[in-house]
Design a protein that fits this description.
This protein is α/β, with parallel strands linked by helices. It has one domain (6-245): Aldolase class I (TIM Barrel), CATH 3.20.20. It is built from 10 helices and 8 strands. It binds phosphoenolpyruvate. Residues 11, 13, 168, 173-174, 205-208, 226-230 line the site of phosphoenolpyruvate (PEP).
Length: 246
């Protein structure tokens, strides 16, 4: 790991209710015991829990993010949608954009670019997900895909310091599979090269758990982890953090 901020981002996906927030008491207690200053814990619950969670976390250093936002930063007739301004209003400081589960629902690079611009305008920080599918990996298209996602996703974006990249190979999300260290190192280095001089933070996401973290934490070009399934269990989440920082 590098000597920079180390991020642990919990993506709760479409899980969790008000009762589930009680399970965070353990994480809050643990976060207060962390000696290292440069650790950032961010919880991204479903939108229904953002307000309650940000109230609960007010006196802690744990921050709250959303899992998606609409591309318009204005109010409007978009039934069922939530924009970045509304998310900020209820306590979100970050938003995950470009997640493969949303790309699979039809979000393309152009739309993700609009969403990033809009969320930046509202003052949110972005966790921008990129990654190749299994088919693209098998066809040796990983670099081509990453390159296009970066180029189109970040097109004409000025406020680069508010963007964190999350490299999440689609075939790794929720499958228990993680890339071979040499492949992961290669992809991270390719992403860095594509991003140019700006020192972006780059997270890895995809089936991170308390076993494979021992291997992942040795890749010192990664600035942290985006954690789905394992983040829903406070014990597993804490275990991942402990094994990374100790
Ligand atoms: C994710 O949803 O971003 C993710 C990485 O999920 P999981 O950890 O469950 O693979």
């Amino acid at each position: 790991m590098t000597n920079k901020y180390l991020y642990f981002v919990a993506n709760w996906k479409m899980y969790g209710d008000l009762k589930a927030l009680n399970s965070l008491d353990k994480v809050i207690k643990f976060s207060k015991s962390i000696k290292q200053k440069k650790i950032k814990l961010i919880y991204c619950p479903p939108s229904t829990l953002i307000n309650s969670l940000s109230n609960k976390l007010k006196k802690t250093k744990i921050e709250v993010g959303a899992q998606n936002s609409h591309e318009s930063d204005k109010y409007g007739a978009f039934t069922g949608q939530i924009n970045s301004k509304m998310l900020k209003n209820v306590g979100a400081r970050y938003v995950i954009l470009g997640h493969s589960e949303n790309r699979q629902l039809g979000e393309d690079n152009k739309k993700i670019n609009s969403k990033i611009k809009s969320a930046l305008k509202s003052g949110l920080k972005i966790i921008f997900c990129i990654g190749e599918t299994l088919k693209e990996k098998r066809n040796k298209k990983t670099n081509q895909v990453l390159s296009k996602q970066i180029k189109m996703g970040l097109k004409l974006i000025q406020k680069k310091s508010s963007i964190i990249i999350a490299y999440e190979p689609v075939w790794s999300i929720g499958t228990g599979l993680i890339p071979k260290p040499k492949d992961l190192i290669k992809s991270i280095s390719f992403i860095k090269k594509k991003l140019g001089k700006k020192p972006y933070k780059i997270l890895y996401g995809g089936s991170v758990n308390s076993d494979n973290i021992k291997q992942l934490k040795n890749i010192n070009t990664i600035d942290g982890f985006l954690i789905g399934g394992a983040s829903q269990d406070p014990k597993k989440f804490i275990d991942i953090i402990k094994k990374t920082i100790n």
